[in-house]
Structures are given as C-alpha cells and as structure tokens.
Amino acid sequence: PEYPERVPQVVTALEAEFRPYPFRGFTLVGVSRDLLHRSGTDGTAFLGGMVLGSQALDPPDFALALPYVAHEASHQWFPFTVRVVPPGGRYMAEGLAQYGSLRAVASLLGQEAAERYRTHGLPDWGDGDFSAAGYFRYAAAGYDQALADLPEAPDGQRIIYVKGKLEWEMLPRQLGHNRFRRAMTRHTREH
Hints:
Layout: H1 3-17, E1 27-31, H2 33-38, E2 43-46, E3 49-53, H3 62-74, H4 89-109, H5 111-119, H6 132-140, H7 154-175, H8 177-190
Parallel strand pairs: 1-3
Antiparallel strand pairs: 2-3
Helix pairs in contact: 1-3, 1-4, 3-4, 4-5, 4-7, 6-7, 7-8
C-alpha cells in the first residue's frame, strides 16, 4: 500500500508547523473499522503512534486518507507534547489536530486542495461535514456553542472539528503564516 510509506511525509509537514517530531519512533496500527466503531472512535492516537481503520492504510487515493491520518498524527504534539487543560482542553487538542490536518493537506496536496478542504471538504471525503460549509449547516441546525462549552456528545465533537480548525486557521491569516508558525513552534518547544 502507498499510504504507510507516506506517513513520514505527513509527520514532516506537521513538524514544519509545530516543531520537530517529539518522540523516538512512530507506530502505525491498523484495525478493522468495525472494531474501531464498536469502541466509539474512528481512530486514536497514543504516545508515539496511532490506531487507524485498516481502510486508511490502503485507500484508493492518498488524498482520501490524508486529513484523517494527519489529524491523528497531530495529536503527537497536542496533547502529548503540549498539555491542554480544561476548560476546553480536550476540544483545544481536537481543534489543533484538525488545523494540523489542514496544514498537511496544504503541504502535501497544495494550497488549492487545502482551500477546498477548508471551505467545502475534499472530494470523496465525507459529505463536507469538516468544512466551513459543514459548520454553517451545524450552526443553522442550532448546534453551535462556545468552544469551551461544547458537550462531549458527537455534536460537540463535530463542531470542534470544524470550528476549531477554522479558528486556529484564522490566526495565521491575521498574523501572517510565517509569524504564526514561529510562535507555534516556540510555544510547543517551551510547553
């Protein structure tokens, strides 16, 4: 499969955003999607690695698995390197992981693909739930709340995946990407 061989590219893209990879090794574990769903998740990260649905290890196209894998890989920095605490700590880590997935898409697939992912989702990747368009659908349905007040329910997780990514992505747009990247790298190194 193509994808496991490309995981180092994902980590390199995230290193450019956050700081050098903080651990000695990286373990990638594939399990059946059904098993993951029965455990209540689509994937999970652990210190120095991640567990993904086996379909992510052999997708028909690298672009299909990239946001998913980059999200889980971003957890090596947030919360495993930089501790995030309540209120909103769990969701801050999820928002940063989604921001990491956006930056990995930009780095590996190009800025046009990242803009499409940000605004409408990537083609053949979900229904655009993790995009600005998805956020506006959730907000119109009454699910929007302050990030620190989101419930642990799936609706709260959906909002943070979208809103958190968009809010973190707004900062480099305001500050300039290089300036924000330097600040983020310094913060992850110091904390």
